[in-house]
Structures are given as structure tokens and as C-alpha cells.
Amino acid sequence: KMAAGDAVGRYRGTVGRSKDPSGLLISVIRTLSTSDDVEDRENEKGRLEEAYEKCDRDLDELIVQHYTELTTAIRTYQSITERITSSRNKIKQVKENLLSCKMLLHCKRDELRKLWIEGIEHKHVLNLLDEIENIKQVPQKLEQCMASKRYLNATDMLVSAVDSLEGPLLQVEGLSDLRLELHSKKMNLHLVLIDELHRHLYIKSTNRVGQRGKDRARLG
To answer: Where is this region: Disordered (predicted)?
Structure first.
């Protein structure tokens, strides 16, 4: 028993000095291989076996003494391991879901860009339709302005309508008749304005000069 205790103490001391358990094994192998005496090797082997048996008995005693704590630790370790495994699986699933969402967002982005472009096109078409409706009402409004001698309003309205028909609405074939009509009205308006200027500059002015001459004659 004393020899076994010495062997255990010696091997434990070797383990305590060496952090690497393989160092103890290498030391034992070196001792067994360098010894020429068979009896010494057998004694060394016996002491080593006794030391390992003593360690096993000590370990069994410690397990019996701390069975409750050991069981609790094992169960806790198992629970923690299961939670870690579950968390890893959830993280993997979340990553897969994020990748799927990213792909869907890319697809939705293309669809939204397409819808946005279509919305701009529809808005432009609606603006053109509103402009066409307004231009179709120009002849009637023009007649009203001419009847009330609002020549400035009539001129602005006619010039704006002709510019639209010659610009953004040039490719609209259904407005060709209206385009010709407004060009004709533009020429007529031009003649009407010349007549009005002639009347104001010559006829009215002459009448005023004549009236002033008569007034002076009466006063004289």
C-alpha cells in the first residue's frame, strides 16, 4: 500500500508539474524503455496500474459523494446544449428567411419601378386629354370674347391653343380639323385687330380732331 501511495503521489506530482497529460505517458514509456531489468519494468508497470486503479476508486468515490451536484450539472449542460442547438437552428432559419425576403424585395422593387413609370405615363396622357378638352372649347370661348370685344383674352387663348396643337398635340390626328379651324380664326382675328387699330387711329382720331375744330370755331 505504501508503494502504491508513493506511485500515486509520484504520478500525480508529475501530472501537476506538466499541463500536458501526454508528458506523463512519454515519461513512463521512457522509463520502461530505458530500464534493462525486466523486474524493474514489471514493478514500474505494476505501480502505474495501481496508481490508475487508485485514481479510478477516488473518482468513483467523488462521483458517489457529489452525485446530486453532478446530475444537476449534467442536466444543466444538456439543457444548455439543447438551447444552443435550438438557437442555431432558429438563426439558420432567420438567415434563410432574410435571404428570401431580400429576393422578394428585389422583385417588388422592379414591379414598383414599372408601376411608377406606368403612373407617369398615365398622368401625362391625362394631362394631354385635359388639354384636348380645353382646346375643343376654344372656338366657342373665342366667339364669346370676340362678341364682347375682349381681344386681348381672345388673342392669348388662340395663341396658346395653336402652340399646343403645333407642339405636344401635333401627332394627334383627330385634331387636324380643329387645327385648321383655329389657324383660320387666327387669320380672321389678325384682320379684326388691324381693322380695330385702323378705326381707332384714323376714324376716331379724325372725328376727335374735327370735333375740336368745330368747338374752336364756335368759341371764335
So the answer is: 1-21
